[in-house]
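Appendix B. One record, verbatim.
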Amino acid sequence: MSLAADSAAARRRQRVRDTQAWRARQKRGAVVLPVEADEEAFDLMARLGLLAPGRETDRRAVADALGKLLRLGLAALRRELNSKFR
């Protein structure tokens, strides 16, 4: 197989994975949105141990840490709302 054919096959496989991920998100009602993280968000991720030192430029690590930070924040808001309305 030539380099061009290998490259085309790799692109097709990636497209299949992307489509599967999109369908799974759509099925659970989730969306992917761009998010801007500022110094405060990075500080919180570091202080909570969500982002390892030296990983600040690793987009995947930052995305994972932001997701965890969002879930922690939502859980805290749910607890607060539940305690206020009991």
